[in-house]
Queue: 2 jobs
Job 1
Amino acid sequence: MRNRIMTAALVLAMVAGLCIDAAAQARGGAAGGRGGGGRGGRGGGAIPPLLMTTDAFEDGGIIPERYAGRGGNVRPGFAFSNIPAGTVSFAIVLQDLDVAVNGAEGVLHWQAWNIPAKPGGIPEGSLPEGSVVGTAGVGRGKYFGPGAPAGPRYHHYAFELYALSAMLDLPADATRDQLLAAMRDIIVGKAAYFGRFRQ
């Protein structure tokens, strides 16, 4: 009888201990969930994302005529921040996401690569020395701004920025697919900036 009582007491103590431990873990997990947003489960603190910004228009806003293909056709300038360590160059792709002519990809309006990392951005209408402007797409080697026709809805345009750990050995007539393939293994960061436009 005495052994049964001691065994029962031992089992109760073990169950109580497990319950206390589970409660503590739940509290810790909840606290971690509240304080660990954006950490990506790495536990080493938040990694600042690569950012691109412009004064030309708000992210997601309406693109002014100055930057449109049938307007001034001036390429907006962008500032880059939170540049990842090891970044040597940048590549940028501009596409109309609402039109698919060949395949599922949007219409390519402009692409450039080997943009040096040091300036931390690109000025309006020009690129730093050494940059390569691709001749593929509707721009044929020049920036071609948004050109969506008049209608009930806006087209959405994406400026996609890639931080790369090396320069690219690509001819100017490289396609978008060739550009993406060439930089696939050297991408150290990515950002995007969106705008809307219609005539």
Job 2
Amino acid sequence: MRIKKKLNAQQLKAVCDVIDNRSEIWINSTGYGMTKEKLKGLNCTGIMFSLHSPNPDKFNEFMGREDAWETMQNGIKLCREADIPIAFNVCLLKEAFYDGTFEKIMNIAKKEEACMVQIIKPKPAGAWLDKEEVFFTEEDINRVKEKVTLYNQDKKFATYPPVYAQIMEEDPSMFGCTAGGTDRFYINAKGDVQPCEFLNISFGNINEEPFEGIYNKMRAYFDKPGSCMLCEESAGQIHKLFVEHMSLIHI
């Protein structure tokens, strides 16, 4: 089960400590605020850093901080000293799989000895709800699949970390969409429980009602994996409702 929520150091440690060895714990981090003390004794499988551009200046611009690249590099160094595996997640527009950007990111992942690279397909969500350029055509999806298969199976890339792509996992012939508690759900910074970070509808707020009731209500809607990517199919409707009400849509 993948659960996403922003936590402070004490909350994060408390959550990790109650999860037993039946699960893997992957912590998403920018490296900001990371220290040796906070990493000491942390019960996790590894820490995953966002690497949405191989260019430090563009990376800083994307993250909205002038020191974002330096902060990430320091976080990687601290994880290495603490003997905690690191991985990268990358959210790339389709052009990145044609212009060499993806290959540059893989070279960085190899250099940093990452244990995995996760490719997140851009979705029209949040501030990108009205962005049409994030949509991938069938040709673009096949391009991503070819790149992933090449790096995972060709012997000349044997020294590179494995690549995991949501585009392939969420294909209807594989698992389909697993949002809503089938495999994942998301709690935003305000406490709203969403099916995933890309589907901007709330089933309730944990600051206002018990989590169990919210979760059960959500699971009634998402009782099995789906073949329709609602975050893409319904993006236009969600954006229209958001513009009309200027708030997160509640179920």
